[in-house]
Amino acid sequence: MSIKSKLIISSLFIISVFSFNITSYSAEISTKLKVGIVDVTLVTRGSLLAKDIARKINSKRQKFMNEIKNEEASLRKLDEELQKKRVILSPEAIIEERRKFRTKRTALNKMVQARNQALLKFRRGTDLYWNKSMQKALSDVVKKHGYNLVFRFTPELILVRPDNIEISNLVLNQLNKNIKEYTETPSPMNTEK
Question: Tell me: the pLDDT tens digits for 68-107?
């Protein structure tokens, strides 16, 4: 199905939802449809949790970059000293010093890879934490206000967003009320002995 077809179908569905007072009838009960739209980008930008996560990611990245920068400076200094020693050391000693230098360079490359992996793992953990926290806040709002159909705002699919069904601020307020800071939980691997 093409994007144009999806847009037309989505538009027709949304127009039908908002144009009519929809009531679902069954043999026993009737339920009025209460629709909401959540703009996750808006909630993320205003969330205290998202801001705290961004600060913590940036702090970790900065710490890792400083460690790597210090190691690189140490290697450069070592290389300069090795260049100066070339005239006074024997060829065998130069070969040995070069081997030690390559070993340290390899160790630095491994450290860079390990730091990148650690940062990626941390980001994945924060993403999971964010998604669970966002889902909990949305669930709380849905229960409290009786919504039974909630859309995620996507500009490609939802062309018109009436203010009377916008619940992004309700979700944002609930999220900020539920949790303000990211707390890193130990991974199962770290707790096993």
Answer: 999 999 999 988 888 888 888 888 888 888 898 899 999 9
Kindly report the pTM of this predicted structure.
0.70
Domain positions in the chain: 3-186
The CATH class for the domain spanning 3-186 reads: alpha beta
* Cα gap 138→168, rounded to integer Å: 9
